[in-house]
Amino acid sequence: MPNPAVWNVVFDAGSDAGIVLAADFPVTGRNEGGFAELLPHLNPDFSLWQTVAPVRAPETGAPPEEYLAAWLSEIEASGRVVRAVMGYCAGSVFAGALAEKLAERQAVAPAVIVFDPELVDVPTAHLQFGRVVGNMTAILTEAEIAELAGTAELLAAKPGIEPTEFAAELYAVFTPIGRGALLRAGLAEDYADELVAMVGSFMAYLCAASGLDPRPGWARATVVTSGSERSGLNRMRTTPGVAPIVIADEHRFEVEHRDLLRTPAVAETVAGLLAARPEGGA
After folding, report:
1. Res 144 pLDDT > 90
2. Which domain of life is it from (predicted)?
3. What's the CATH number for 7-119+211-275?
């Protein structure tokens, strides 16, 4: 079994089964559905491994290759074939990069299925931070929400700012505010610190994704697109300066971005894609 600090085994179909990888940053209580919700509807004959991002603060600026290297080493140690790589939102960047690396190591390249994929830039990090704050509105004061939102907007408008600088400066402002709100809500100090660090790790995860080019992997990907205008291909196709994104196929569903992985029609489509194994695949 892989190191649980590197891969979370959502489902184990046995040592002879192929693996499907899922790149995501799931946290308890988030509004978006996750791969654990999708899995039961897939009738899996494969094991599902989900990425575990390292605990890091965004100011460390860790190279994205460190994320990929840890994940890939565990796959190689398992000796098992990866049938497909899936990714959700910013996780689709890592999915595309992992798929390209695995295509060099396996006789048959894994299939690639991504859900509202995002190229990570400052607007993406800004949007994702807004979702983090949105999940905390029950414990943040109006003044705190306004301060965090205002800081994020000022930083996002700063000429030439890069995702790592944006995330590091925003996290520095968030840390005391978020910690204070969690303590007011009655959480123990160590748990409050853990949750604040998780936000930092998420921002660092976005920074790492911003340093990868997933488009070679996406070129043979099937994309599952929601009806949310500010997510995935919908946003990229209307954003000036974003080069055309080449993909192999697309399935659109008129559901919210947050509901993609919990929608039965999506699960039915994905089950069909995973059942159509490439010749020689596991």
Report:
1. yes
2. Bacteria
3. 3.40.50.1820
